[in-house]
TrEMBL record:
Keyword Nucleotide-binding: no
Keywords in alphabetical order: Calcium, Hydrolase, Metal-binding, Signal
Stored InterPro entries: Alkaline_phosphatase_core_sf, Sulfatase, Sulfatase_CS, Sulfatase_N
SUPFAM superfamilies, per the entry: Alkaline phosphatase-like (SSF53649)
Record protein name field: Arylsulfatase
Species in which this protein is naturally found: Wenyingzhuangia fucanilytica
Amino acid sequence: MTMKNNVFFTLKLSALLTLLCSMGTLDIEAQNKPNVVYILVDDLGYGDLGCYGATKVKTPNIDKLANEGKMFTDAHSASAVCTPSRYALLTGQYPIRGNNGKGIWGPASVPSELLINTEQITIADVFKNSGYNTAALGKWHLGFKKGKNDWQEPLSPGPNDLGFDYYYGVPLVNSAPPYVYVENTHVVGGDAKDPLVFVGKGKDKEVTPITPIPPEASQRTVNMFKGAVKAHKLYNDYTVGQVLAGKAVDWITEKTTNNKKNPFFLYFATTHIHHPFTPGTNFQGKSDAELYGDFIQELDWMVGQVTSTLEQQGVADNTLIILTSDNGAMLNLGGRNAVKAGHKINGDLLGFKFGVWEGGHRIPFIAKWPGKIKPGTVSDQLICNVDMLATFMAITGQDPNSLDNSDSINVLPAFIDNPSEPIRNELLLAPYKATHLSLRKEKWMYIPAKGSGGFHGSKPNHHAWGGAPAVNFVGGKNSEMENGKLKETAQVAQLYNLEKDKYQTTNVYSQFPEVVKEMEAILDTYRPKK
């Protein structure tokens, strides 16, 4: 029996003993476990949905989820970057603990190995341990295989080794090769006579052609693979949303038709609304926020496909649906065009994806659970995606306190009730740059350096805008900036009172030295030791 199986047995026995001791016999409701659908959107900003204040896009299906469930106003991703954020979600650990304690800071590269140890407990393992069918659909971006990934099949270890019965999706992201689908451990449409071969950059004449897209769709990395012609033809940027939504519908339908005895967990990680912005034909030109807004509206349709399938299959009343994002919105070309059209991608929050200001990691978070979560409610509890591991353990009758070396906190009370006291008082928040690893403690946000620690582009030809120039572009205000630049008098670090200043307009670092001292001491306990 492996270490992971030993842990499974211990957790299962612990949960059983807890229930027996507290109830005398197993509660009937404990046996009727809810299905769980976790929809993780890519780069969805705090201002990108109607229910969070957007007026230039229409999101009726997502707004309905909010009306029938609970919206969170102080939810965060543990990182403002896609790969480390997903690491935190799946493992219940801050991404600084990954990579043997060196931390995971940036997006996984094309040849990246699997970044999660297969012996680690994941959210999928939690559900498997409780008798669930499990699937991961969509964007993966956490690597495959051990050591350097040469992309030779089978692509293992991967999602199937982390508790997911089934995987189908985009192996990295829609802006980076390989531009193919992967199903479990194999390339969809793969051919042993025409294998997928990684050739690297600068081999434009060798690589397999991919879907042409216009410049206004925003950046997409050139292909770095040759071969697998059929597999590449199956991947069309303009139909990815349709393909992934269809897979979600098919999987839910199959599990609720042929596997009625077992509940299910679906991790649906969309490539929307990450660049390039390539909405399907039916959605092009339909929003008031350029291609960026069209992509959001296609995302909303995808969500509607999932929710309507749950209803049609008669399982909606016993399903917890969570919709959230991996990080804040990015001010790329598509985002800038949307801003010019009057759309506030991160609302009035300061900053963007990759940076540690609130716009980089404060995210939409909606939870609907009929009969458990009161409809039309709003919570200001501080929660994080790293908390899902412990929360899912609680939902499935397992003991979150049995976890070792976990940063995950059970926030189920914030879902089903309205606690008067904070469930989480402290939160570690990571941007792209390790120098800006920051700490949230109650009302205070401490950043131990100048700037955001993220992107810093400012020219029309730059793909990734960030920092003071980006804040200036959207009309934001901050006491350390002037005319799109940091002032020469900018303080060495930043402290914000989010209770009074949610939008981080005023750095009060010099006014509260004792708070800074306390925050710095706590933060130092998290930093990697040299």
